[in-house]
Design a protein that fits this description.
The chain is of the alpha/beta class. It has 9 helices and 13 strands. The strands form 3 sheets. The chain has a 5-stranded parallel β-sheet, with helices on both faces.
Length: 268
C-alpha cells in the first residue's frame, strides 16, 4: 500500500538523508519496538557498538554496517552524522538512547556540523523498566536513576545525587555499578544509601534483564545486598526500593512491591 511506505524509503527516493537514533532495548529483538525494527530494516547504514550490533544480527540484511568498540562513541557519532547527509542512517544504542545512551552526543555533533536533515529519536526499553518487570512492581512510585560510572561524571557529583535521592526516600536504580576498573563505587553507594533507608528495605539485582539468555536475578535487603557484591557487574541493574516497599514471597518466587498509596485511599 502506498500509504504504508516507510519514512526512510521516502527519504531515500528523494535523495535526502535522514538520521535515526534508536534505543534497541535490553538486547533481544522481541523486546524492541515495531517502529525501531522497521526503521532498522529500511536503513542504508546501521552504526553501533559491536556488542549491540550482534544483538540485532537477525535484522541485518542489505544494510551497510559501521562497527566500533566501547570508548569510540564520538567517532561513531561523527560518522553517523556525515553519512546522514544523503543516506538513511540508524545509530543504535542499548536500552533507550536518552538514558545514558547516544542521543545527546549524536545531537550535539549534528548541531555542531549544522546537519540539515530530519533527525528522529526512537525510544527503547531501558534497564530500569526491564529489571523492574523481572522483579515485580518496585518502581510504581517516584524513583531516581543514578549511574555509578565516574568516567564522565565526577564521583563527588555522584555522591551528592546519592545523598539527595536516598534522603528523599526515592526508589533508586543504580546503573553501571561495577567494572574491572571501578570495584568500590557500588559499595560506597550502598554505604551512603544506608544512612537514610532502613536495612529491611528490599533490593533487587537483575543481570541481563529480558535478554534471551543468561537472565538472572536476586531479591534481598539493603542489609544483605553486599553479600552479592562479587555477583554484580556492568550487566547488573540494582533497584533499591523505598521504606514502604515489601517483599512478596509466593509460589512464583520473590517479588518486590512498592505501594502507590491506594491502600491508604481505599483501605484494602
Amino acid at each position: 500500500m502506498e500509504g504504508s511506505q516507510s519514512q526512510s524509503q521516502n527519504k531515500t527516493s528523494a535523495g535526502k538523508g535522514r538520521l535515526y537514533i534508536i534505543g534497541i532495548g535490553p538486547g533481544s529483538v522481541p523486546q524492541m519496538t515495531i517502529a525501531a525494527r522497521d526503521v532498522l530494516m529500511n536503513s542504508d547504514y546501521i552504526v553501533g557498538n559491536g556488542t549491540y550490533l550482534d544483538q540485532i544480527a537477525e535484522l541485518i540484511d542489505k544494510q551497510e554496517i559501521i562497527r566500533s568498540a566501547m570508548g569510540k562513541e564520538v567517532d561513531r557519532a561523527v560518522k553517523a552524522v556525515q553519512l546522514a547527509k544523503d543516506k538513511v542512517v540508524s545509530m543504535i544504542s542499548g536500552g533507550d538512547a536518552n538514558i545514558y545512551g547516544m542521543a545527546g552526543l549524536v545531537l550535539e555533533v549534528a548541531e555542531h556540523e549544522g546537519l540539515d536533515v530530519d533527525i528522529e529519536v526512537l525510544p527503547g526499553v531501558t534497564a530500569i523498566t526491564a529489571a523492574a518487570s523481572v522483579l515485580g512492581a518496585p518502581i510504581v512510585n517516584d524513583f531516581a536513576v543514578i549511574s555509578l560510572s565516574d568516567l564522565l561524571t565526577p564521583w563527588e557529583v555522584i555522591e551528592k545525587r546519592l545523598h539527595a535521592a536516598a534522603s528523599a526516600d526515592f526508589v533508586i536504580s543504580l546503573y553501571n555499578p561495577k567494572s574491572r576498573q571501578r570495584k568500590s563505587n557500588f559499595s560506597q553507594a550502598i554505604d551512603i544509601i544506608k544512612k537514610y533507608k532502613n536495612g529491611s528495605v528490599p533490593v533487587g539485582l537483575v543481570k541481563n534483564a529480558l535478554r534471551t539468555t543468561d537472565q538472572d536475578y536476586v531479591v534481598t535487603t539493603l542489609d544483605e545486598v553486599m553479600n552479592y557484591n562479587d555477583w554484580v557487574d556492568m550487566s547488573t541493574t540494582i533497584l533499591i526500593a523505598n521504606n514502604e516497599s515489601r517483599i512478596w514471597k509466593s509460589n512464583n518466587g520473590e517479588r518486590i512491591i512498592t505501594p502507590r498509596g491506594y491502600q491508604r485511599k481505599y483501605d484494602y
